[in-house]
Amino acid sequence: MNNSFVNTARLLGAGLRALLVLTVLTGVIYPLAVTGVAQTLFQDKANGSEITAHGKVAGSSLIGQSYTRPLKKGQQTPQADLMWFQGRPADGLGANSVNTRYKLILSGATNLSADSGAVHGACPAQPADGTLCAQVLAARAAVVKDNSVPGYPVKPSDVPADAVTSSGSGLDPDISPAYAELQVHRVAARNRLPVATVEELVRDHTTGRTLGFIGEPRVNVLELNIALKDLTAKH
């Protein structure tokens, strides 16, 4: 009995020592080391990739935002504020009180298949409500209407894919250069700016492929709109 008790006590002591050592190593030293390296070498990314404007945090370069007008009395769906460049749709986030557009409570895709609402591989003129075809066609019609200005009519064939589809998370902060360029004439007209000036703004905020071959060229909408706000203040 004595030997059994001694052996048990020895094993318990060894287990407690191992627990203490591993807790200190993995729960204290390792997190502090990783945090120290991150804050030293990657401070911006470690702190959420924040974008500041005029000394205030305007958002994160990793999270999309909505640019809408305040709700009017009796209005349930906010309208896009067409003074600003618009991001991708956020259909995957739903539209209820918990899961709302560009809120960080939840994120996710639509879970609709690529042929949702399609007939023989193509979207019909009037697809069923709630299908991907219905969402895409409605989004395309809105893009055409919103961005057609005198002297610059937008055709449905001009609308790029990212203008009518949401990303996997529904929080994509970037749009394609093609979608940004499609919005130039509308933004210029709404802000009474020369088209060439707004085109240059888009070019200045277009980022190429990472390392020259990863991903696609992109435009961060928040950074672009901050620059647009600064530009309009000068005119």
Structural features:
single chain; 235 residues; three-stranded antiparallel sheet; mainly alpha; two-stranded antiparallel ribbon; elongated; 2 domains; 7% strand
SSE order, as H and E? HHEEHEHHEEH
Rg, alpha carbons: 25 Å
Which whole number gives the mean pLDDT? Answer: 87
In order across it, which strands form the biggest sheet?
3-5-4
Whole-number count of domains:
2
Biggest β-sheet strands, sense, barrel: 3 strands, antiparallel
- Percent strand equals 5-15%
Amount of helix: 40-55%
Number of strands: 5
State the shape: elongated
How would you characterize this protein structure?
This protein is mainly α and 235 residues long. The chain has 2 domains: 2-45; 50-234, no CATH class. It is built from 6 helices and 5 strands. The protein has helices at 2-41, 43-46, 132-147, 177-191, 195-204, 221-234, and strands at 50-53, 56-60, 174-175, 206-207, 218-220. Strands 3-5-4 form a 3-stranded antiparallel β-sheet. Strands 1-2 form a two-stranded antiparallel ribbon. Helix 4 (177-191) packs antiparallel against helix 5. The chain is elongated and about 95 Å long. The chain starts with a helix and ends with a helix. 22% of the residues are buried.
